[in-house]
Amino acid sequence: MDMRGFQQYKEQSVNTMTQGELLLLLYDELVKRLTQAELALNKQSYELFEDSVQRGIDITQYLSDTLDPQYEISHELDRLYEYMIYELGRAKIGRHLEPLAHVKTMAGELRESFREAQKTSGAGKQAAE
Fold this sequence. Notes:
flagellum; bacterial flagellum biogenesis; chaperone; mainly alpha
């Protein structure tokens, strides 16, 4: 398979996604990285564990950085993301599963909440048309 063609396809896919779809993709990637970190820690593959947790921190920081401060919910989400980053740091430094699992659960719940909100807002748009 031509990897350049695949890379172009991926870029085109991302460029045509809605903001809601991109947000869900970020949450999917966050949960995936945290799952990868759990598996790596169980296998005592510490380099992969640390890389996966760091990627989770980077994604969470990006989510925080892209919040729009004009909305009240953004302040609450920012505090939540800050807590998640703190917990991921604890997991990384101490090589602990508990904070990692906690953040993974939180990320999954947030993903589902945004998915439901996207469905609801999509249904509202369709009814208005």
